[in-house]
Amino acid sequence: xxxxxxERINFRRAExxxxxxTLAECPEDSGAEVAFAGRxxxxxxxxxxxxxxxxxLARTSKTPGRTQLINFFRLSEQQRLVDLxxxxxxxxxxxxxxEWQRHLAFYLEQRHCLKGLVLLMDIRQPLKEFDxxxxxxxxxxxxxxxxxxxxxxxxxxxxxxxxxxxxEKELKALELDRNVTVQIFSAPKRKGLxxxxxxxxxxxxxxxxxxxxxxxxxxxxxxx
Length: 224
Ligand SMILES: Nc1nc2c(ncn2[C@@H]2O[C@H](COP(=O)(O)OP(=O)(O)OP(=O)(O)O)[C@@H](O)[C@H]2O)c(=O)[nH]1
Ligand SMILES: [Mg+2]
Fold this sequence. Notes:
Bound molecules: guanosine-5'-triphosphate, magnesium ion
Distance between the termini: 15 Å
Strand order of the largest sheet: 1-3-4-2-5-6-7
Number of helices: 5
Oligomer: single chain
């Protein structure tokens, strides 16, 4: 879709909608939703707060694993952001992690209103095992993914750009680059916010996608 017919969402209007302890208790599967995922401490809640310009919206913490519920934020009647709990938190029992990963896979593969995934990784330690797992689920289910390399303020510009190129190169080598974009991000410096907003506006747009030549849209790649 060209940018000109994409509605611009006022992210500052975001409000807390609900917390779900499991994905089975999510709000109704309608409208458009974008989920923020990533390892514990990657900066998911901080990115949502920067985007919505509301430092109190999503709880952030120095203690990894703070976000334990799936938190839904309402942008409009039919548009939502989702803060998924971090994974990779060492103090969570293995069985709980496995259970959570099953829920997550189900959510990514089955949720019709899920239009895109924002996958956050600390720019200093990208593409860990679970990041690759998420990318693999997303690519197989045709879910577009936008990677935020967070905490870029911890690096100078040169090394930050090199880190981005290295991630892009590795994704290509692993054949996980289909429908995946990568950008640098910093919540405290508000760096990369415009780019993130553009991506979210596009994914969350409720305008029907005009099919080329009136042909029905291809199903290739999955449900989303
Ligand atoms: N320097 C810097 N610190 C950040 C940035 N983003 C987040 N942080 C810090 O990293 C820590 C974790 O941030 P959160 O936003 O709570 O991380 P999360 O991914 O929501 O973590 P969980 O809820 O545990 O999964 C906090 O101390 C944040 O202040 C960033 O872009 N730069
Ligand atoms: Mg969090």
